[in-house]
C-alpha cells in the first residue's frame, strides 16, 4: 500500500517562499528605515538572496524604489498565504468527507 502524504512538496515550497518573502521584507524595511542616514548604502535582497550586499552603483536608498519593492513583496506574500490556505482547506474537506 502506498504511503499517504498529507503535506506534499507544495507545502514545503510555499513555506520556503514565505520565509524568503519575510526576509526580503525585513531587508526592504531596513533600507527604508535608513534612507536618511548619511552614508548608508541600501541593500538589494534579490542580488544575494539571503546575504546583504551593497548595490552595484554604490548609490544611496531611493525611497520610491524601496516602497515599490515593499509593495511587490507584500503582494507576493499575500498570494503565498492564500495558496497555503487553499491547500489546508482542501485537506480539511478531505478529512471531513472521510468521516461521513
Q: Would you list the SSEs in sequence order as H and E? A: HHH
What is the overall silhouette? rod-shaped
pLDDT < 50 stretches: 50-54
What is the number of E strands?
Answer: 0
Main beta sheet strand tally, sense and closure: none
Total individual domains: 1
Q: Please give the radius of gyration in angstroms.
A: 19 Å
Strand content: under 5%
Structural class: mainly alpha
Distance between the termini: 23 Å
Write the layout of secondary structure elements.
Layout: H1 9-33, H2 45-48, H3 63-98
Helix pairs in contact: 1-3
Characteristics:
rod-shaped, mainly alpha, 100 residues, single chain, 65% helix, 3 helices
Verbal overview:
This protein has one domain (about 10-100). It is rod-shaped and about 65 Å long. Helix 1 packs antiparallel against helix 3. By secondary structure, the chain is an all-alpha fold. The chain has helices at about 10-35, 45-50, 65-100. Residues about 50-55 have low confidence and may be disordered.
Briefly summarize what is shown.
This protein is mostly helical and 100 residues long.
Amino acid at each position: 500500500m502506498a504511503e499517504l502524504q498529507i503535506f506534499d512538496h507544495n507545502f514545503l515550497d510555499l513555506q520556503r517562499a514565505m520565509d524568503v518573502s519575510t526576509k526580503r521584507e525585513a531587508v526592504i524595511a531596513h533600507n527604508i528605515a535608513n534612507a536618511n542616514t548619511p552614508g548608508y548604502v541600501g541593500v538589494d535582497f534579490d542580488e544575494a538572496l539571503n546575504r546583504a550586499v551593497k548595490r552595484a552603483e554604490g548609490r544611496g536608498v531611493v525611497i520610491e524604489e524601496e516602497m515599490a519593492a515593499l509593495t511587490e513583496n507584500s503582494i507576493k506574500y499575500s498570494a503565498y498565504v492564500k495558496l497555503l490556505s487553499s491547500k489546508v482547506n482542501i485537506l480539511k474537506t478531505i478529512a471531513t468527507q472521510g468521516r461521513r
